[in-house]
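Chapter review: from sequence to fold.
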Amino acid sequence: MSKSPLHSPPFPAIDLVPKKETETLEFLQQYPEYDGRNVVIGILDTGIDPAAAGIRYMQDGKTPKLIDLVDCTGSGDVDISCKAQVTPCNDGDEECYQIEGLSGRKWKLRKEWWKHAPASDRLPSVQLGIKRAYELFPSSLVSRVKAHRKQELEKALGSEVAKVARQLYRWKQSYDKRTATHDQLREKDNLQALLDILMDQKDLEEDPGLILDCIVFYDGEDMRAVILSDEDVAKDGSPTIQPMASFAKEFQYGTISTLDQYNYGVNFYDDNQILSIVGDCTPHGTHVASIAAAAEGERSGVAPGAQLVSIKIGDSRMGSMESGSSVARGIMAAVKLGCDVINLSYGEAGQLANEGRVARLAEEVVWRHNIMFVSAVGNNGPALTTLNAPGGITTCIMGVAAYVSPDMMKADYSLFSNTTKADDDLEMDENGEDPDALVGTSYTWSSVGPTVDGANGVSVCAPGGAIASVSNWTMQKSMLMNGTSMASPHACGCVALLVSACKAEGIQISPARIQRAIENTAKSMPNLTNLQQGWGMVQVSRAFQQLKAVRDIASEDVYFEVNVENLPSNPRGIYLRQNEDVSAKRIFSIRINPQFRRVADIDETSQRYQIDFEMQFNLCSTASWIKVPRHFMCMNNGRTFKVAVNPCNLEPGVHTARVCGSDSEHPERGFLWSCPVTVIKPLPEEPTVELPSLEFEATEIKRLFVVPPPGSTWMDITVKDCRSAKRDGDGTTKLYVLHTVQLLPHTAYRESSTQKYLNLLPSQTSICSISVEAGVTCEVDIGRYWATSGISKADVIIEFRGVRPDQNEVCLLAGDSFRQVQVHSDLRDEIICPTAKLASWKTALRPKEGTISPLGERDVQPWNEKTTYQLILHYEFSQDEKGSFTPRVPALQGVLYESTYESQLILAYDGDKRYLGFCDAYPNSISAPKGLVVLKMQIRHDDPTMLEKLKDMTIWIDRKLDKEISVSCYSTREDRLVGGKRSMKKRTLRKGTCASIFFAEPSSSKIPSCREGDVLMGTVHFCSGDATLPGDGKRPDGFPISYTVGPKTERQSSEGEAVEQKDERTPDERLAEAIRDLKVDQLSKLTSAEKESGLFETTFSGLLKDYPRYVPLLLANLRYLDSLKNRSEILPTVLQAADIVIENVAEDELAMHFGRRLDKDDTKMVQRNKDLEKTKQQLVEALVRKSLALIDLKDQQNAPQLFEETLRKLKEWVDIDSNGKFAALVLERDSRLGRFGLVLKRLNKLISKNNGKDTGGARPLSKSDLLQRRCDVLKELGYTALAEREESMRLIMKPKDYMLF
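The token string follows.
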């Protein structure tokens, strides 16, 4: 009998997807009909799985919830421009047609699929495409599928492995390798090669996965697609799946295979030349959609009656990273698909606030199309001004921070409070609360305002975690996720409820009206500042009551733009952060400018409304240190008023306030606009800041603001846990977060941000060294992680250190010999011991070509029909060895949402057009094989003249050096000139003094094979970094150093110039031989048309009479015969021509000559060596062509014997086994001898070296040839599983064209 508690409490399932915190439950109980119905939510994310729980249908199980799937990234695009006509089935199946897909596989297509097509005697035509499933799959799914397929492959090959292993064992038992014959040793090598391939599969290790044949056709009513793999075929060969129309038409979805459980829909674009396979690239998007609107009973989302549109902006090729083009497409798609609300749980650190193409597109969506735009502010806290673009820094977007409530902590995170007492025995404080109870808070990492230009950034907060539905391919129904990515869809669901209610009750809907009601009724959460929570927690019921209260006031639809006019760039708020900003009273001019809905057509009514618009505002400030006028009259085109901010008497720390305006006639409307004011008062400037015994309440963050004194280049922060395990009875670790940020102009916060999580035991100390910029206010946050319980105490010491160079980058130029740098110690004595190393090098590339063209229907702005254009730049370079490289585009990279251009995506390929990797707004390393690398870069803009400016744009290719190059440092110029062991030694640099350091130009022998103008890059550290010092003992990331490579040194040959030999021939002899050579040369240069006219035979016959034994002439004839179209019919003639060449070569003379050592001082012998080397090569060519003819001469009885004899003769002159030019011959030889293991080994080696080039020789083998041969050998061996994989691999390694953008 099982044991269980007598009083088992019910599981709080309602809190798995939290709703109580935002009054959602209360609202739905009061207004069950306003559950989001008649509202469409656009989820701009990683895609939504249409089969996930609660996603496909409404609660009734019939009405579609997910009404469209679109992929805005292009990662699921398939080129279907290839057209073909079906044929009748060759097996007599009258119910099906037959077609060969681009994979080479034959498929049956059911005739009933064309039942709506008009009757015709002609067979239907189809469009064909091909796609690798792994290009669609998320990386975690790829790993799972690969692991399973590897197991299946090993299982299939198990008996073969055992068979070869037994054969190899028997060989070792039968022969001694010291006495074995050559053939016996080759047999062993063959068996070993086979075993290596079967066991290790190092040369076949890449799993191609499923190759999907895409067949698209028009059925008489709609375009339809079938995505076929080997699993989609019944025993009779007929397909087991149904063709799908665009998802929005019939809500169909397919599954790639039973193993992967990857679900997808389809769409068609660009005059049906593009098939879009729409899946998801992480479960993130499905989870987000579930929070917003899943219909799953008690675990439903916030707005279970709303419908969903999946707008995929996470690119599968880029590991779910978004691009500027995917976001732009997504925003435009939201308008085209009729969305009422948009959720964007994406973002990146931005350099500028409210700038860039994405911000302008978002404004069109919000202010023109009345679509509410909700977005996450980011997970980069707890420091201030860590908001992501676009959600946290764009005016028209409502930014949402993440909150975790006690109920969420219990249900979602299984946390417990510190109390161990029963409920009846709890000791309450004076407020009647349990002091040890769980405390609601924002997540430690939830990003915090204000924006860099002082705006709120965070509008509201919402629950930021849930256990909600995820994609089926994860092999689980639900998952816990947390972050502002989860808070945003919660708030978005709340907006959907309000929009649904407004539609039902006939209340005017506008983003300004909805957002103002939400912000004015939000609940301020305890223990959080307005920078963390914005206006507070969304309260749906209160917001709806507010909307009803102001429903008849037309100016509720007016948005008021706020700017500070007398500050640079007219920021949206007042943000004083530097010492000089907060040392005196200041006056600011605030401009309020009403913004009306943008309309396409101007009419008298809208014009008159703007002309007559006037508002009488009452002004107030939420802080006594800000003075404002009491009244303000505003009309269209805006006005300004002045405010006085006096921060002089404020204590060190962060201080926030708002200047707000309310309608004097209708104060119940709340604040109609506000201008945030944030003042940072740093601590007094000191080289050392000590903060002993800091006590941390639950979830508390201590914010310290310090100014690094002049001369600082880094700081050491010491954090010591003050608990005593013995005294406090607590020996557990406590998780602290340390976060520092300095804000630098036109630089994203992350570039000067350091975040560390410290797990400290009682009395444990951690020291962190962090780079700083002197004189710039630095925020230092130390806090307890949100889920950490119990008492937390810590001592904190901030110590500024620094050795200051007189130049921020050490730039060495070829020929400079040295670069002098002066370093200063301004704060304290420092130990210096400069070290400099060059670790990478970069090469400049200019484009080979650049083309500008208009894009398709997905890139047309719906509000003005303006088309976006693309610039495709084509770059090429040679990779000397297999390795990685990073494309760098200084003009464009580093910005995404705030970029003027829409996209800067680079796709990399090898010489065979095989996709290698990507690089987007942020530099990314790409692995490449040796050989040609092709880069295709797409840049997009709706103004083609902007693209014209970039058609000749230089980019850089950055590579790591195989071995770092040390740059020598000296203390004097003379020591640099002498060099040797006189390099600079460790020494103490006294406070207030300086020293000179001379950095030497690297030795040319250490420089890799760079081009002139290439730049080597690295890092220089000036301090010693002694292990006895606290922290790193130096600036952690050092300072940059670079060296520009000069021209290569011209090296003279040690042998000197060879003395020209006197020509002993008579003038007549020289003239006759020159005429002969010219005639033979011209014979070889005859055009194809001239050869076909018989001119070659005629000319050759005439020359043969004059020069019957001249080998170059005879070889020209052999080449001619070997190149004829009817070669296969005249192979005996080719053999005869080859034999004639061979017979006329004095082989004995060649053998005698090359068997002796060449005397390079004997000019006559050197010249004779050159002549005989040419003759030898002519002999080799004749033997090769004869061998190839014998391979093709299958009907001649003695051809195999002659082939062996010819090959043996060829081996007397060249090493055919090590030279790829003879690959066709060696492969044929080993195949005839049944040495297929050696054949595979050689093929693998040739394939790995082949990158866009063939093997060379008389019969060059392309990569396609090599791959096909490898597949044929595997079939010959009976290795079916490997052969099938090879068939797929062949399509991947040598695609017909480049991947689509």
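Two observations follow directly from the output. Residues 420-424, 1053-1058 have pLDDT under 50 and may be disordered. The longest strand covers residues 830-845.
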